[in-house]
Specification:
The complex is a heterodimer of chains A (158) and B (444). With 158 residues, chain A is α+β, with helices and mostly antiparallel strands. Chain A is built from three helices and ten strands, in the order H-E-E-E-E-E-H-H-E-E-E-E-E. Classes of the chains: A alpha+beta (158), B alpha/beta (444). Chains A and B meet through helix 1 of A and helix 10 and strand 15 of B.
Chain lengths: 158, 444
């Protein structure tokens, strides 16, 4: 993945998570991956288009998903969720949108033009994601609620 | 006392293995926490050494001489001799030791602690494994398991065969290399006969050390270099009286120092630029794609960009440069350097900034730096040229195969491949050598 793309994603993930959840966020070591990756249970995905093609995927366990959604909701004086219901899904979708949106804005300022697709959310057991010949950058984020893995795969349009 | 222990062990022995005749006894002791034994026929007595008389100008493991009831004997410290850690003893406290009875004389050895005497059938003794213990294999006559403990039986006749104060060499950890040439006469014939073929072991150990200390893997890619370097290394280490074996990262670096290609990690100098430029063909197409996997901090990629721009002024150039080192590759797009670091002829492509020079857009626009691992496969377009110097040697052999498969997949027919100066493709049949000094190959 192009070097210039890395920081905007890492920074906005950190910024948004700290800001929205008001918790301490720790960034893990970045690494690259390409083989099929097992998914943790809840995944929000946003496609990228424009100068590039690719996608950003936010992956976490169901439990973490519920806690993160609750955290976001309570910080906005709303009731926490007990289950991965409609409200929880919408909240996580919004979180993914905020992070990706900020990253894309940063990239735009650097002169890269990206468009976003509307986010989608997947839930289920034993899921895995694979895109052959498409290397993904993994940005692990450690929160008190658990781990969110941000999986960014972008390639230049030939 | 000793005989009591002997009797006890013998009894025990009979209980556990009545069918085995006890025909070998040894005195056991510890060195650096490991168990060793010496044939009891060679041990005159167990002793405590209190006061040595220091003898100047002897090897470090000669502790001095000792007056044993009127006989003056030399005292050797096994721990120093075999480079095992020495337990700190309070000043003036007696050292544990054995008095050995050798063919011609007596000798005292200092050990950590004396354990006991054990007896067993000599059939239980197994030959030592080449990487056994901290002591050179040829000083070990065998290994035996006794009551759940593993004893290494030292061959004292062989250790002290030349002259008691001057063993053939300083054996060290895991060393099983060929003899170092001894200044004392009479060593050559004594050592050559019973040696296992040292070449193979030597090679294996060096390869192992290079991969673990420096992540460098010997394979068909670099073994021509490795074999000649091994000879050189052996000679130079012996001249300095050092061990041939590599025991830490610095030594691995020293071994590999001549491997790295010219200007590895820096901008290419004029001579290299000229030879690379000379090996490039004249082009008909107007588009040149170059891939530079393992570009590190980007110096190589920039050198290539300038070189190709000069060589092909009118074509459309594009260089993909990738590395798995996030720290290095992150600095590459905005590389800043001082004037002296680049050849003087590059001045047209430089812009000066607050912290030094950087490349003008005419050059930086040619290169796309990626945080990427070749082994993850690639979605790159077909390349006219691939430059990857000293990269494949740092991949494990299985990954090297994959690496070349990826290169062959991406490279256009009759595309060029530039490897490290001491590297060559694994499978030469798909490649044609163009220039050996810069390791330039053409894909068939």
């Amino acid at each position: 993945m192009r070097v210039e793309y890395i920081n905007p994603f890492v920074e906005s993930a950190y910024n948004i998570l700290t800001e929205v959840l008001k918790v301490e966020v720790q960034r893990g070591e970045l690494y690259l991956k390409n083989a099929a990756m097992p998914m943790l249970g809840v995944a929000a995905i946003i496609g990228l288009a424009g100068d590039v093609e690719g996608r950003v995927l936010f992956d976490m366990t169901r439990e973490t998903g519920i806690k993160v959604a609750s955290g976001m909701l309570t910080s906005m004086d709303m009731d926490p969720v007990e289950d991965l219901n409609e409200m929880a899904r919408a909240t996580l979708t919004e979180l993914a949108n905020m992070i990706t949106g900020q990253a894309v804005t940063k990239l735009h300022n650097l002169g890269f033009k990206f468009d976003l697709t509307p986010p989608a959310i997947f839930t289920g057991e034993n899921m895995s994601v694979s895109d052959s010949n498409f290397e993904a950058l993994i940005v692990p984020m450690d929160l008190p609620m658990g781990k969110i893995e941000i999986n960014v795969a972008i390639r230049e349009r030939a | 006392m000793t005989s009591q222990i002997e009797r006890k062990t013998e009894q025990h022995k009979e209980e556990v293995a009545a069918q085995d005749v006890v025909d070998f006894k040894m005195v056991t002791f510890t060195l650096g926490g490991k168990d060793y034994g010496i044939d009891i026929m060679r041990v005159k007595e167990i002793a405590k050494f209190q006061q040595f008389t220091y003898v100047p100008n002897t090897a470090p493991y000669v502790r001095g001489v000792y007056n044993l009831r009127g006989d003056i004997i030399s005292i050797i410290d096994f721990r120093l001799m075999f480079n095992v850690p020495v337990e700190e003893k309070p000043e003036g406290k007696a050292e544990n030791g054995l008095i050995l009875r050798l063919e011609q004389n007596q000798l005292g050895v200092v050990v950590d602690s004396i354990d006991k005497v054990v007896g067993f059938s000599s059939r239980q003794i197994q030959p030592p494994h080449p990487i056994f213990g901290d002591i050179n294999i040829k000083f070990i006559s065998g290994v035996v398991e006794h009551q759940g403990r593993l004893y290494i039986i030292l061959d004292v006749d062989r250790i002290f065969q030349k002259e008691e104060k001057k063993p053939a060499e300083r054996p060290t950890a895991a060393e099983t290399v060929e003899e170092e040439p001894e200044e004392k006469e009479g060593t050559a014939e004594a050592t050559s006969a019973e040696e296992p073929p040292p070449e193979a072991i030597n090679r294996e150990f060096l390869q192992e050390a290079l991969s673990s200390f420096r992540g460098f893997y010997v394979s068909g890619v670099n073994d021509q270099w490795f074999i000649s370097r091994m000879g050189e290394w052996e000679l130079s280490r012996r001249e300095k009286g050092l061990d041939v074996q590599i025991t830490d990262r610095d030594e691995a670096e020293a071994f590999l120092a001549p491997f790295w290609s010219r200007c590895n990690g820096s901008f290419w100098e004029e001579a290299l630029l000229r030879s690379v430029s000379a090996s490039l063909p004249d082009l008909e197409n107007s588009l040149v794609h170059v891939w530079n996997p393992g570009c590190g901090g980007g110096h190589e990629s920039y050198s290539l960009a300038v070189l190709l721009r000069e060589r092909y002024p009118d074509v459309q150039l594009k260089i993909w440069a990738g590395d798995t080192d996030l720290m290095k590759i992150s600095t590459a797009p905005n590389l800043v350097f001082q004037e002296g670091e680049v050849p003087a002829s590059w001045s047209d492509y430089l812009v000066s900034g607050r912290n030094g020079y950087s490349f003008s857009a005419a050059i930086t626009d040619l290169i796309l730096f990626e945080f990427s691992d070749v082994l993850n496969g690639t979605a790159l377009p077909r390349m006219d040229m691939i430059v990857s110097r000293d990269v494949v040697s740092t991949l494990e052999p299985a990954k090297q195969v994959k690496f070349f498969a990826t290169l062959e997949e991406v490279l256009k027919p009759s595309g060029l491949l530039m490897l490290g100066e001491n590297e060559q493709p694994l499978d030469m049949s798909s490649w044609e050598l163009i220039d050996d000094t810069i390791s330039m190959y053409r894909f068939r």
